[in-house]
Amino acid sequence: MNHPSQPTIALLHWGDLIEDFLDSIGTSFKSFCSEMTGGWMFGYIAALRLVGVQTVLFCISDQVQHPTYYTHTPTGAKICLLPAPALHRSARRRMQEPYGRTLEEVFLEEVVNQKPQSLRKPFLAGLRDITPYVATPIRMLGDELRREGCQAILCQEYEYARFDACVLLGQLIRVPVFATFQGGELQPSHLERMVRPLAMRACAGLIVATQTEMHRVKERYALPSEKLCQIFNPMDVSNWRAVNRQEARLALDIPIAAQVVIYHGRIEIHRKGLDVLLEAWAQICRDRPNPNLQLLLVGTGSDAEKFRQLLSKKQLPGITWIDEYVRDRRLLWQYLSAADVYVLPSRHEGFPVAPLEAMACGLPIVAADAPGVPDILEQGELSGGLMVPREDPMAIATALSRILENPSLAQELGQRARQRIEDSFSLETIGDQLRDFLLKPKQRV
Q1: How many CB atoms lie within 10 A of CB 291?
Q2: Ranges assigned E (strand) in 176-256
Q3: Contacts 24+ apart (CB under 8 A), 284-291
């Protein structure tokens, strides 16, 4: 049990099972516990710990039969694995892609199109809608929340079924429920469209990082302003620093004279705009034929195989892809420090962490104006980067070329980027904000 003198927050991840996330980035639960750092999740945990608030991370798994506790080595936080309910396990056995957009993607096409369709399709549609709701073992979670003395629940995404389920649990056990928005796709099911407005009104509060999302939530759910709080994702500013560029390039076998553009993050082609990035890179290579130009891509994800095929088809020069989720923070510092400029071509984001990591290493940023980016680059170049329209490869190519051709501008933007991170995203700043909002005296349960 946690120390009674310290408040404790329960944190719950997005998605039905923690394995869904871990499998998509090619990592094991053991590595998750022992090596993984950064991101919004462990950033929150580290920030709260710094201001005297403990966190228990609750994960749902199909690999355990009873509540099982682990320790996240880098932060010391508890991780509690809860078994997925039997009903959820049964439903998932029928699915090939639980997060698919259509019935044919979720279930095998031949299953969807079996006769009689008039009965089968509505049944499958209902099964798809209800499955995320039965993924959370409500009673068991309530028991463990009491055991750990948790004073509030924080869900990763408020636009997801687990948030609705936790709000119900919070009402039953009189624990306030909060949620953040970390970029989940807004595709509510029929059931969610009925339940979500009720959960939004019943929850204790929402943490929203961007003004765009703040406006959407207010308009969509008619929520009062006091229920929303703008808090950015935190960065461990004291540790996230560039290493010597020459040493980094020597270690990575990158020529000292090379001009290096880097992207690191999930390999999700449409959402992350990686197809747009490749078009922009093709344009740069046409305009500036230079054997020293390099595009360094670091990361993996659900579209890794499709992306490999896309790279093979396009045969663009100067591209190096590190197809792995880099858990070693020092290695990631090396990759970032070896680059001249960071690029984020995303179509959709909640509040991206990767550009913050690059900015903390003193890199100038070229980023599409996906949600969250205007809040990061609040003052444009004065915040350390160039913002361009989404889905505009020519704009990305022009902005990247401008920085690559002007080393003094690159240096100035990089210094501003680092200052922006220090001023607005430190663990201390965000920890204070999270504590004050999650543990405010007058909470509505």
Answers
A1: 10
A2: 177-180, 205-207, 228-229
A3: 284/397, 284/400, 284/401, 285/316, 285/317, 285/318, 287/397, 287/401, 288/401, 288/404, 290/259, 291/317, 291/318
Mean pLDDT across the stretch 211-234?
91
pLDDT exceeds cutoff 50 at 445: no
Q: Which two tokens stand for residue 36?
A: 């993984």
Backbone angles phi, psi at 186, to 5 degrees: -90, 85
Cα(233)–Cα(44) distance, rounded to whole angstroms? 7
Distance CA 186, CA 169 (A): 23
Residue type for 88, please?
H
Using the Cα atoms of residue 124, residue 130, residue 134 and residue 135 in order, give the sign of their dihedral: positive
- CB-based burial label for 360 (10 Å; 0-12, 13-18, 19+): buried
Model confidence pLDDT, tens digit, residues 117-126: 667 788 888 9
pLDDT reading at 62 higher than 80: yes
Sheet of 293-298: strand order equals: 319-322, 293-298, 259-264, 341-344, 365-368, 385-388
Alpha-carbon distances, residue 312 vs 264, 302, 321, 391 (angstroms): 20, 18, 12, 22
Angle between helices 393-404 and 274-287 (to 10 degrees): 50
Strands 68-71 and 341-344 come out as unpaired
8-state DSSP, 353: S
Residue 19 predicted with pLDDT over 70: yes
